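[User] Could I get a sequence and structure tokens?

[Assistant]
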Amino acid sequence: MRVGSVSHEDPAGGLRLPLDLWAGGTIGAVAIGLTAGIFGPPAIVAIPALGVAGLAMLRWPGLVFAAYLLLPYYKGFADPYVPGDLTVTLAAMNGLQVMWIVQGGWRYLHREPLVLWLALTLVVVAGATYAPDTGESVPRVVQWVALIVFPACAAVRVASSPRHVRHTVVAIAATGLLVVALAIPRIGDPTRLVVLEQNTIQVAIAALFVPVIGIAYLRSRSRLVELALAVIVPVSLIVAVASGSRGPPLAAAAAAIGALGVHLARGGGIERRSAALLGAVGIGIALVLVAVGALPEASVLRYSTLGDFLLGTAGANDTSAGVRVDLFGAALHMFAERPIVGHGTGSFASFAAGAVEFTDLPYPHNSLLQVGAEFGLVGLALVGLLVASAVLRRIPADRSWVALRLVFVFLFFQSLVSGDFYSNRMLWGLLAVLVLAPDDGPRSPLAQRA
């Protein structure tokens, strides 16, 4: 990038230097003022860290975006060392990418997904006007706008450059590898596997980022990469199983089968080397089964009880699966009562409190059922179109884009058995990037810049 250039962008998606300095100073001043004002003068020690973070936001937006999306996987560990609220800080840093959009990044916005995204947000806001007056609606609207929609401004900039997309994918893969590396020494613990102060579901999801992203590199020309995948993927699967969380492995399997089905349906094939690698992974899965005896007893028991529950074995006692069935039933009942517009924003919590025994969960652990219960067919149509766009639209022919889509598909299936519509920032963040993927045609800003 040259100082004084008349272009708003450089090949890496950056801004002109004067604007960089102005934006960095503004962000730093606002962040420092908020931190010191809310948490007291001692928080002023965060100035150097905020300066580095501001520079990262300007030069490496893909990494900053990934840091926000991946926050649930390290927040418990990092919180004691970070002054202020890490969620608010990272959400603000990503949301302030709106300045980049105003200064020329708007050219990367696609009209159709933008209209759908805004329409879904309007539905969430409007839903608060007819939801039961239980105090849940407004906080849910604020949560959606402040923690999902506003930070998604960074998705526009991430989608504008292959480099930013690669940074995001590398950060996701690195998180998975870190969790796997930390978990391996604890495989033999008697209790369910937990690292970095995560819960067991997050451990399983993070470990499965590795094989899910690895699918994008099955056809790598590097034998070293393929050998590494053949070793790392089985180990990651062992860690995921050792967590005792059943949903993520099932979601990853569904995502892999779905990706393979779409690939074959589009006339694709499986090369000999890829087949050999899949065979090696299959052997790794067999090793997982052999290793079951060395896995935490509590984790193995959860798979056993799930099997008994699904088979209807007499005396089966799987509280987790049983509660989910009750929650799904409550959401379906709500949808049946008001199928067009649902019961309104945040309405599931009050309904479930009376319909499902011993639960105070504000969501049914299934994003589509939650949308159907609270926003009816209108919400389901908007979400369905956005998901279809993220999965089916043409994306750049780059492994990083493919890996990003595979992670999204995995997280979408995972959202059908766990998670909350209003707080699943990684699912919605990756969706925003995918629906904003640049076209390959001559009208694409990337093509014009080239």
Residues 3 and 120 are 40 Å apart (CA to CA). The chain is about 65% helix and 0% strand.
